[in-house]
Design a protein that fits this description.
By secondary structure, the chain is mainly alpha-helical. The protein has a single domain, classed as Arc Repressor Mutant, subunit A (Orthogonal Bundle), CATH 1.10.10. Helices cover 59% and strands 10% of the residues. The protein has 6 helices and 3 strands; from the N terminus they run ααβααββαα. A 3-stranded antiparallel beta sheet has the order 1-3-2. It is globular and about 50 Å long. It holds the Pfam family PadR. InterPro entries: Tscrpt_reg_PadR_N, WH-like_DNA-bd_sf, WH_DNA-bd_sf. It comes from Halococcus hamelinensis 100A6. This is Transcriptional regulator.
């Protein structure tokens, strides 16, 4: 029997791959079905994302409690960020932005980018 790891502290979410973090970032805007997530990733990476890479990573994120999977119809699943998933996205952004604190010019550039989004 496999043991399900859930996010009880930030360490599990901080161990995610960049690909998994990108999935969470995509889902932070709205719930999506798998092929829509795939298209967003392909746009970001500017290359094809194989089903064999996407769906196992989505399943891992579901197992970790960061994403919730529901059935839209008999052939289509929808994926939505959980509160823990949202916290993981925020944690990653806060950490990334904290790296710019020491350089005022860079910090200002990042703030401007965030505000325009």
């Amino acid at each position: 029997m496999s043991e399900t790891r859930t996010v009880t502290d930030r360490s599990v979410a901080r161990d995610l791959t960049a690909f998994q973090q990108n999935i969470l970032a995509i889902l932070s805007d709205d719930a999506m079905y798998g092929l829509a997530i795939k298209r967003e990733l392909e746009s970001y990476y500017d290359s094809e994302v194989n089903h064999g890479r996407l769906y196992p990573n989505l399943d891992d994120l579901v197992e970790l409690g960061l994403v919730e999977k529901s059935e839209l119809d008999k052939r289509t699943n929808q994926y939505e960020l959980t509160d823990e998933g949202y916290d993981a996205v925020i944690d990653k952004l806060e950490w990334t932005l904290s790296k710019f604190v020491t350089d005022d010019d860079r910090a200002e550039t990042v703030r401007d980018l965030v505000e325009t989004q």
